[in-house]
Amino acid sequence: xxxxxxxxxxxDGGGDNIPLRELHKRGTHYTMTNGGSIxxxxxxxxxxxxxxxxxxxxxxxxxxxxxxxxxxxxERHRRIxxxxxxxxxxxxxxxxxxxxGWLVVTLTGLAxxxxxxLIDIAADWMTDLxxxxxxxxxxxxxxxxxxxxxxxxxxxxxxCPQWKTWAELIIGQAEGPGSYIMNYIMYIFWALSFxxxxxxxxxxxxxxxxxxxxxxxxxxxxxxxxxxYLGKWTLMIKTITLVLAVASGLSLGKEGPLxxxxxxxxxxxxxxxxxxxxxxxxxxxxxxxxxxxxxSVAFGAPIGGVLFSLEEVSYxxxxxxxxxxxxxxxxxxxxxxxxxxxxNSRLVxxxxxxxxxxxxxxxxxxxxxxxxxxxxxxxxxxxxxAWCRRRKxxxxxxxxxxxxxxxxxxxxxxxxxxxxxxxxxxxxIKELFTDCGPLESSSLCDYRNDMNASKIVDIPDRPAGTGxxxxxxxxxxxxxxxxxxxVFTFGIKxxxxxxxxxxxxxxxxxxxxxxxxxxxAYYHHDWFIFKEWCEVGxxxxxxxxxxxxGAAACLGGVTRMTVSLVVIVFExxxxxxxxxxxxxxxxxxxxxxxAFGREGIYEAHIRLNGYPFxxxxxxxxxxxxxxxxxxxxxSDPPLAVLTQDNMTVEDIENLINETSYNGFPVxxxxxxxxxxxxxxxxxxxxxxxxxxxxxxxxxxxxxVCFAQHTPSLPAESPRPLKLRSILDMSPFTVTDHTPMEIVxxxxxxxxxRQCLVTHNGIVLGIITKKNILEHLExxxxxxxxxxxxxxxxxxxxxxxxxxxxxxxPRVNNVQLNPIAEEREETEEEVxxxxxxxx
Length: 838
Description:
GO terms for molecular function: ATP binding; chloride:proton antiporter activity; PDZ domain binding; voltage-gated chloride channel activity; volume-sensitive chloride channel activity. The protein is mainly alpha-helical.
């Protein structure tokens, strides 16, 4: 096989994909853990009591072994409990260990809330910097600058002498064509400057700081190792560039990247506590709580953040993690509320309250908005993935700075003339959500007043004025603009979230539908659908409610979230009575989106990037067996195994040097081939090296013994090496007739990296996580794969048994009893080979 044609190493023992460009970072050690339990009462070598560095850790782009990590944690917990009654110091250490989980989530919540407040304040200030500056206090944004002014009017409350546009400062004109052109030029200049600075910082200092981060967070929480993705440099650069990206006016949001920022905080703080720094599975419990804190500060929705972590990103979510996630979200929301970044005593900019109830007839337009959200989600996923795949496969992807500059330039040039696209996206959502009242001066509220309604709390439905019709046309143009630019923006090399752009698209569509229904009810109040509940002069329809429902529907169509999304939007509005419309729209959008493809945008990007992620939501309905998927196959070399007591140190070293597998089954002998256990490549290497250094008489011809008792050897034989203590005596095994549906469930629920396939106790082959993903990809052949599969350019694999149905004996990577004359393949064997060929 030509290795250069495949970006991933063709080894089957580890269950991971390792890009060739990463090999120089790893040296000669490979990490692979097994699915069995750990005999933690023994040491690595008989004569070595001290721990050996490197054992139990993982290299970059490898998958952790959940079972092994949980066993390590249980052993640590038992050791602490057994010592806590010995002294006051041991009792103190036990209490510290028990409370360390709450301490780390508290620190994570504090840091997440503080950083979110800082990002909100800085993004608002830099967004307004594109239009002008406050001369009385340079650190004030436009709204804050005019708070203390006594010269503002009700109609022009945002205009005050303290705030100067760039046209006023440069050419001294506040109105006219010259002023418009100068403001236009400065808007584009600042947008390009912010975008260029953001992409440059990401490219130079922290390449992992780009994008949303949620696909990678999902992959990491499933057990994958990506070194540096949650590091301090990524946190620092992502915080800075997120502000710049939002301020540049690109069609993106900061809510998704805030989850990445919070997880960076959780990862950094976990290193302060040995309970989490030395255990990758425990660390992922902290990351689950951190993701809840991130959504809590992004939307001001602590409960929605916990449900988001449970429904969308977490792979392993025990009850203890649920409590700590809730506490982390609470602390983060409290800190953000104390900072009060928006000056409205709320956690988010677009907090709204509605006072008008909804009516049964309105479920029909709500469901229509759900259909629109599902169609938008399906279109966006396909279009964005197609563009990202094209970016990866063409020269355009080699120039990320140029791409960001082009997208930012097009966005700024088109966005400035339209007041709804010129607005910050969060402010746009706020204006679309807000119901028209007596204090609103927006053109969306330019209705013709037929009565003196200045003292009425609930303004009745009124005929739309010219301002409303003009705003509808501008919103239609803004809708088209947002749909197109969001497709090309999500995935560029700057921090880019998808929550806010999707909500903006849905809010625009919902507001347009809401105004249409409102005018229909006003002019045709005698229709039977309005006659019963909508009287003349009553406030029947709330267009802002339609905007909120549309926002939830579009976000649900893209991400396929349901429960957490409804709770998030419910916490935004504070109204229990609107849960039914939200549920109807979100479920409709999910059903419509699932009709075109069951993957959400994050799962699609995970598959596009080739991450080893087994989606728990995906159903496996095929009837294949473990024997159809296991390795090796027909044209593959035989399974490399070790014998219990018939191999020398030199034999094992040669086997390690000649193969790239990360683990080897240990059998009793070449005659019986019955399974004894499983030995890791890295453990074998470390054990042999340590034995050569610390034990006398260990040479290449020394017999290696995995059995409990050393066999009798001639007197002139060199000293044997006992390696039973590194042997996993209980590897996970399945029979060759186990349905793959059960095997996939075992891998998902136990977090396995591999399991052995046996027949009557005889080892036939091995199934790794990579083999599972290959098999699932093969079953989707009717769908064009998003990324080159791992089996690309690989040969067909043979079954581990001969045509007579008996297992083929093998040992030391050599077939023991080769069959001289192979029978011709039967029809059944040909069918099996064709159905399992990758």
